[in-house]
Amino acid sequence: MTLRPARAWVRRPAAGLAVLLLVALGAVAAVAARGPAPAATPTDRVQAIASGLRCPTCRDLSVADSPAPLARQMRNQIAEGLQAGKSPEAIRREFVAAYGESVLLVPPRRGVGLVAWVAPALLLAGGLLAAVLVVRRWRARGAAAAGGPSATPRTSRADRALLQRALARFEEDGP
Amino acid sequence: MTGSARAMPAAAGTAADQRRPRRVPLLLATVAAVVALAAWLLSVGLQRDPTAIRSPLLGRPAPDFALRTLDGDRVVRLGDLQGQVVVVNFWASWCAECRVEHPALNAAWSRFRDAGVVFVGVDFQDDRRGALAYLAETGTSWPVVADPGSRTALAYGVYGIPETFFIGPDGRVTAKQVGPVTYDQLVREITRLLPGRSG
């Protein structure tokens, strides 16, 4: 009884792998949807906003990671904004108003930025689909080349008639 | 029996052979299209100056500021300059390219200073003594202000100096120059904003 599922996995490893993949993807999606843990201390809140902003005077470094004076001043400005009761979104909007959306390290989920969010999922789905199609074709071709019992659809009508007659004779003779 | 069994895989093979001539060019065309697209994006993207991003301030009201001059004499408030053409130049004494553009600024300033045009220099991440020495050395006569905490630079979206903003009489940003500004450019942008006077 307990061995049955195990045997099912052994018989269909591809299905097992697919289920594992789905579970892993689901977990990743759940973590991504929940986002980072809410920042506790004021410094954490500043870091959380700063890590999503590009340091203007550096190349591909966040305001949180950059030692540049301008990045330090941006962190100060974020801290002051938070102290004044501004929301993180309002603070980000201020920087976008001055620098444009390129100041955001995470692209917005609209307009051209949406491509960055959707493209990976589409490419992954397309790749999986292509892999499944290719594997199915390989298996069909392998089965056809082997010509063994798995090639039943390719048995001719004459063969099937012959088999039926043999079976009928066997049943007559059997009991 | 054995003959027909042997013929079957051969027949499947010819079916695959018939399919292949159609699929291979299609596959090659797809790969070529993807490679061409990537090459085009790279050729466009790599040649573009990453700092030359269109400022979102263009056409918008210029962020207001009230900053004290470096010598501490007075406060320059952008809001008070409404109705005039304002050229805001971000610079520093440590900035080599600012020295390059300085003669152009000087020439444009002496040409337009009495025509309702105001230049404001904003000292960017500089030490006050070095900045004052630079101003004395170059004989700068337009107001130059300090920007504590780079607040104004951040509000204007400054990437790297020198950067120059042109503000019309209505208080809106009409143009932005990243890098040394030329005399011709200063004249062109300023006269564009002074239709009645220099025409």
Keyword list:
heterodimer; A: mainly alpha; Helicase, Ruva Protein, domain 3; 7 helices; 67% helix; B: alpha/beta; Glutaredoxin; five-stranded mixed β-sheet; two-stranded antiparallel sheet
Give me a quick take on this structure.
The complex is a heterodimer of chains A (175) and B (199). Chain A has helices at residues 3-11, 13-34, 42-50, 69-83, 88-99, 113-146, 157-173.
SSE diagram, text form:
The complex is a heterodimer of chains A (175) and B (199).
Chain A: H1 3-11, H2 13-34, H3 42-50, H4 69-83, H5 88-99, H6 113-146, H7 157-173
Helix pairs in contact in A: 1-2, 3-4
Chain B: H1 2-47, E1 66-68, E2 75-77, E3 85-91, H2 96-112, E4 117-123, H3 128-138, E5 144-146, H4 151-155, E6 163-167, E7 173-178, H5 183-193, H6 195-198
Describe the structure.
The complex is a heterodimer of chains A (175) and B (199). By secondary structure, chain A is mostly helical. Chain A is built from seven helices and no strands. Chain A has two domains: 3-109, Helicase, Ruva Protein, domain 3; 119-173, no CATH class. Classes of the chains: A mainly alpha (175), B alpha/beta (199). Chains A and B meet through helix 4, helix 5 and helix 6 of A and helix 1 and helix 4 of B.
